[in-house]
């Protein structure tokens, strides 16, 4: 049965990729990237064998913890988890829960990320080749660690979809509940940052701390062995296996609930006549699009997930400023929030999926479509960015930089809206379908999303280059005039790019809307 | 039939379609259904063709839907009905051929043509995180109507389609039949001159179906034109005044119901035209009464 499930997974993958070649390109690039990562990692791990055991242990523990953290967090924040084998679709078949669990686990290991992780983890044995027994232990620990990676990511996604299958407030609660988890890394870092001096000392302290968390405990075993601490090594190993067991049990529970929970158990009703945003925004086509978008921003977990990363970015900056004891990092929060928000509508049409047909068949002008979507996000994004700018500067105390920061943020926001208006009218990116878990990733999505995101960031960086230059001059010279000039350029140039983007994106929709829709149908 | 107005038509698809000409297409008279009305058809399709990879989905369709007619489009699964209707409503770009709605070319002047049409597409999502009332309001506002008009019409439509009680429920929580009805309301709200309905009665309960039929009949009586695709032959025979039988991307027969069925029932005539009826029982292993012992779990 497990073999059968695995065969099914690859068959589904093959057929999906045959249907849309771009996803295949995504998978291939992902594989190439994985191989590159693997090569680099292997060389690094072999090179570590020449270092003292203490250094090697620190690096392996840090790297391993990071890897496991990535497995658990990335599905939640960025790419979602590959669910080629959809549990919902397997529900009707008489498959034992444990068989299903094992099948999903094997499928998880045998993906590009799984294989890369497995090989990297096994390569830690190479670090200890001078101590054959330690190397053997490293292999065993590596297997446990990789299993923990796969099970951990499945567990988090499974639990979050259990949370999110209920009523709307529970969906939101599920997302919010994940935030502490997301911030676990920085928090751990905070409590350990004070220990030790110098960069390597910091790392050692961090590795020591992580070595006692679920993320690092199993990775720290070989180093303990090499150092001769057999008792500690045994304790860590038992703890590591315990982590795997607990994660497996939690995942099993989540899966069991998922299997008997129908996809829509909610019954959300509002009183008739309550039109929400439709009553508050102007009764024009663009206003209607804006009202629809705003309703989705508040109701659709896929949109809400984009807002979670909004909280994480500032949190990371706060973490850095504490870690490196410099308030300068706080000044970056505003522009980062502007960047994230400006590109949040970059895949808006992809999120619509085939519901976009109603825009297409109603004879809506492309410009109105673009304008409405920008309008919806601008309503909350502009105030949020301005407030974040002022508040973060209030904490950093760099009031002289405020005009420059404001100018840069406004420039980023407006230019990004313009850019997103063109991209979302042009390309269809693989995103979770409406109603699917926001943590579900179509095959190849991980890489193509990252690639298109970086491409868009690159273009956006070029667009706001004048603001960046002016801001830098202002920060270097300390003359206030440069800051105010940044505001001027940010507003004027940003408005121009926004106007241009809405015009170009709208014209593109008018001309190629049907082709875009055909693409959406193919991804649906 | 080589009317290839579209500029991106390659020579090869044209040859492919012409090598299999739709010889059985009877000439559809473009005469008005109601005497005295202008002879411009509500929908006029000429030489329509579309391929998906190697599969020819629509292979040279010519069709005229007179103004004021209730037109049925029938055909087996995969005949190209949905593809044809998608191209006719501007959702899918035809590879070749022209489509005119009340004389306006859909692909030359899409915005003008689309304003005349109400569409209920099959297999297409709705913005289902809106409530039913919001969704119909959205459709109305997208067509550029003012708020009081939209509000009045939304209330009327919800009442006519028995959706008043579910007005405040998210469409995602609707049953399949209710979803069809709310999609129909979206197609009707801007009072189009031509209604294109792809499988409007699928999974709709009999009472609602009868109500919808009344609404559509009244709409046709006042000069509107309706095209429905359906698998229910009885329904088409009773409800429509015109019908076209489509199979393998071509029109096998088209005209008034009586012209097409030639005295037989529409269903018999359909099976006769399309073929493929098998007189066979299922395979032996599907015979439950076989003396297989039930496995006890």
From TrEMBL, chain A:
The entry's keywords: Membrane, Transmembrane, Transmembrane helix
Keyword Nucleus on entry: no
Transmembrane segments: 21-49, 55-78, 99-123, 129-151, 172-191, 233-251, 303-323, 329-351, 372-399, 405-433, 454-475, 481-502
Record-given protein name: Transporter
From TrEMBL, chain B:
Keyword flag Transport: yes
PROSITE patterns: ABC_TRANSPORTER_2
Biological processes, Gene Ontology terms: response to antibiotic
Alphabetical list of InterPro entries matching this protein: AAA+_ATPase, ABC_transporter-like_ATP-bd, ABC_transporter_ATP-binding, P-loop_NTPase
GO molecular function term, any single one: ATP binding
Localization in the cell: Cell membrane
Gene3D superfamilies in the cross-refs: P-loop containing nucleotide triphosphate hydrolases (3.40.50.300)
Protein name listed in UniProt: ABC transporter ATP-binding protein
GO cellular component, one term: plasma membrane
The keyword Transport is annotated on this UniProt entry: yes
Annotated ranges, domain ABC transporter: 43-273
Membrane topology of the entry: Peripheral membrane protein
Matching SMART domains: AAA
Keywords: Antibiotic resistance, ATP-binding, Nucleotide-binding, Transport
SUPFAM superfamilies: P-loop containing nucleoside triphosphate hydrolases (SSF52540)
